[in-house]
Every structure is written in C-alpha cells, then in structure tokens.
Amino acid sequence: MSLLRSVPVRESIFYHEGLVKAFIQYDPERANRILDEIGLNHRDREGFRTFPDRTRMLFYLDESGRRRSSVGEFVVDDWAKVGVRVILRMRTRRLFYVEKNARDFDFNVWGPCVEHMAIISPRYFIPFDTESFYAVGWARWYMKGGFYGDKAARESPSAIAVPTDHPMHHAIAAYEQAKYAPTLEVQKQHFKKVLDIAAENTWSIAIGTSPPDLAVVKNDFRNVPERILTTCYVQSPGNAGIETYFFEKPKSSPSVDREITESLLNPTPRPGGEVTEGTVKSGAGKTITSIIKYSVLVVVVLVILLISLHHPYICRRLLIMVPTLLIISVVAFTVIQLPPGDFLTAKLMQLQVSGDAQDMQAIEDLES
Fold it and tell me: Mean pLDDT score of the chain, rounded to an integer?
C-alpha cells in the first residue's frame, strides 16, 4: 500500500471533497477501538500489538533514498501511539523499484504527481501502471489489456486479473468510460465515480497534501509566470515558456549579445536538415542539386511521353529488355549462390591454387 496519495487539488476541475477528507481525522481512541474489535487486542511486553496467534506484528515502511525521511517518521510515531510497530527503511531507487515490482513490501511512501489533472495518470485511484505503487499484479493485467480480455494478460504469469465483482473493476470501467467521453462534462461525471470508489476503499492513505514548489527568480529576470503546473508529464519548467525568459540588464559583453542575436535570426541547421529562410547555403551545392533533380524529371517525362505515343523503338526495347534482365538476374543469383557455397569464389580459389602449384614447379625446375 502507498501512504501518500495524490488527490486533485481545489483548483482542479476534478476536485473531490470526499476524497480529500477521507479518513484523515486524528482519533487515536477510535483507532484503538477498531483494532481491538478486529482481534488485534493482544500486546507484547513493549506495548505493541501482536497478531491473534501472539506472533510479533511488524510492518516496514519503505522510502526511496532520494527523499527525506521526515514524512515516514511521522507515520512511525503516530502508529506507535495505537500500538502498531513500524520500521522506516530507506531504499535506493533501484532497490525500491525491484521490491515494489516483486510485490515484496508492506508499505511505501511516494510523492504526488499530476494532482491538477489527475485523469492523465490516475495511479493512486486505479492500478493504472506499475507506478501505482500498490496492486502491481492488477496493474500488469490492466497494462496488457486484461480489461478487454487480451490474450497477453491471461498468459502473463505476473498479471493478476481483477475480479469482476470487485470495486476496483468498477473503478477501471468508469475510467475507461472517462477516457472516451465526448465532452469534458461527461468525462468529469465518469471520473468522479473513480474518485468515489477510491474515497470509500482507500487504496492509498493520504498522510499529507503536496505543498507548492517554490522557485527563486532574480530581480531582473523577466517573463517568468507567477504560477505554473509543475509535473514531469508536462516537462516542467518547459511548460512555462522558458524560451521567452530574458534578463532586463544582461551582464554579457556586446559581442556575445550580437552573436546570440545572429544565431537566433539566422540559425545554422543540423547536417542534412532543412535549410530555412535566412540561412546561408552553398551556391555550388544548390546548383548541383537542381541539375540532378531536373535531369531526372526530364528523363521520366520523356519516357512517359514516348510510351504514351506508342513509339516503336521504346516499346520494342522495353519488351526485350525486361524479360532478358529478369532471366539474367535469376541465372546469376543461382550460380553465385549455388549451395553448398559460393560457386564463383570456389572457382577462383581453385584457379589460384593451380596457379600457385605451377609457379612452385617452375621455381623447382630453375633451382635444379
């Protein structure tokens, strides 16, 4: 299970009040009562809960090595107050993914993504792909077309089919309808069903909301928007129009400014690329290209014209040439590629060997 769910923010058209506030109340007394009622009422000498068979109950919370551990430490402390023992483990990203893909984990923590347009990657609401961080077997089934009965999903040993009567199957069906909705309003209606099911079943636990990403901008740096959507799916900050940024008081020398201006107005194309207007092009190369192009065009036009006029010379030559070339090609290919080897090469080697033998004999005669 993933512990940091990404929910559509209030500014999103997919904002869902019930999902944002689902099971976020801090109520240790109610949590203790529920744990006792489901049979986890026994504790060890340290005060932590045990399983009904009195074995030690212990969960591992995995975080990627590139993230701070502060979020996970909150979970360790809060769960310990209701008798649930959790050990925080830092993992390198490679090990984190290996264990996740092998379904060898208890809980993990990951950050939000695309919470403004959650329909782009609804990985916290359905097992959209293996980036969902939970139900990886279901995710592989969905990715391989299992929802539509694809054979690849049935034959994959790592894909686990979602039962048709399971709430997750209903959520996937609603998402499929949302993907192909004809209008935005219809899409919102179908995707709301996905969020309703996620709020009721809690595929992932929301332990916090994502704060805004802050960017430091120098005073004379201009054209930087005050707000942008930050996510890898839109290649932030590439979606902020970075090609229009500029310094109001640049500190570069005038020669550098002139060179930059010239490169923007008259870009140099890549080798083999199309030459745009304003770019210098070799006169000799342009002339040769034009000659070849128009020569080929003239030949093609003449051939078509002669054939259309039923010129006797052209028609007769074509009737003779085409079958002759075909026969010669077949014979040459058969002879050269005759099994068990290359006939021509073998013949040349034979002549070379016989020639070497004659040369050796001549040398021996001279020596004697």
Answer: 81
